[in-house]
Amino acid sequence: MADEKTTAKPGRRKKAVSGTEARASPQTKDAQTQEILDQARQEEKPAWEVTEQVVLLPLDKLRPFKNHPFKVQDDDELMQDTIDSIMVGGVINPILVRPVEDGQFEVVSGHRRFRASELAGLHTIKAIVREMDDDTAVITMVDSNLQRDNILPSERAFSYRMKLEALKHQGRRVDLTCDQVGHKLDSRRSIQILADDSGSSKTQVQRYIRLTNLIPQLLDMVDRKELAFNPAVELSWLKPQEQKDFLDAMDYGQATPSLSQAQRIKKLSQNDQCTLDAMCQIMNEEKKGEPDQVTLKSDVLRKYFPKSYTPLKMQQTIIHLLEMWQKNQKRDKSR
Q: Are 141 and 168 in contact (CB under 8 A)?
């Protein structure tokens, strides 16, 4: 999903219909879309391009892939580099789209190039048009975007989940037309395929997918590296309200959890004992081997910081100011 997302949390794709009903493979196309496809099929193409349709499409006929989890931000450095490149030489590598309803095309791969073309003031873009069903589109979108560098944990988590659901649905469709039990693509087999495709282990894939159960505030902390991956996986087992209470517990303790603390809080939840007081007690405990600490309550500090500051950001700012104060003290003494 190279790329786009605003702030909306990605959701699951539309569930497959049950029984012998098959999903539309591809959706109904209007006359204009069909004309574009027919024209593209008739054009002469080099051997490597025979199975594809490459056309110039109006940008206003394109739309982002539904619920894709990859973020495309207008103000990041990579976006600006892409815009500069397009303004000089245009879009060199075509984006990948599929025809959908109402004469529109859904971007499967190339969301950053698509958005950069809009920002560069272009009106058309070179695209490969490929007809594919929903599950194939999801798998293609995920595989093409996971090749990018600097994938955020949330992007990887939701893309894994989307691909897993698509693989499982493909397995159910195969099972409807095949009597051999060995052809059924069950959940365990789907996870193994996903792990093999991503070059990871089944356990690691499952742990990433667990992150999709975090509330947005905690998941954002994972993306910003304010909350470590392993504790975050443990916290994903908490109920949504317990996770919201845990934010207050972190604020109270002025710290993020260690793996041990997160595991103990998870156990509290499993035993229906995960109260705010219990979490605050764990988060406020004095770590073994640590010297005596001076504790400042959040309500004392909050008035000095913007509302958007997390406890970790507040702590980093305080440390920075103390270091500056210490340097000034040493300079004064040396005079």
A: no
H/E run at residue 11: none
DSSP 274-325: --HHHHHHHHTSPPTT--------HHHHGGGS-TT--HHHHHHHHHHHHHHH
Tell me how far apart the terminal alpha carbons of the chain are, to the nearest angstrom.
59
Length of the chain: 335
- The pLDDT tens digits of the residues spanning 24-77 come to 444 445 666 667 666 665 655 443 344 566 889 999 999 999 888 888 877 778
Q: Look at the alpha carbons of 148, 153, 155, 157 in this order and tell me if their dihedral is positive or negative.
A: positive
Helix, strand, or coil here: 148? coil
Q: What confidence tens digit (pLDDT) does each residue in 143-191 have?
A: 988 877 788 999 999 999 999 999 988 775 544 444 444 444 456 788 8
* Alpha helix positions (H), the chain: 31-42, 77-89, 111-119, 134-145, 153-176, 187-198, 202-210, 216-223, 229-235, 240-253, 259-270, 276-283, 298-301, 311-334
Contact 107, 95 (CB under 8 A): yes
Task: Give the span between the Cα atoms of 119 and 79, in whole angstroms.
Answer: 10
Strands of the sheet with 62-63, listed across from one edge: 53-58, 124-129, 95-99, 105-109, 62-63
User: Is the pTM for the entire model greater than 0.85?
Assistant: no
Fold of 1-7+26-145: 3.90.1530
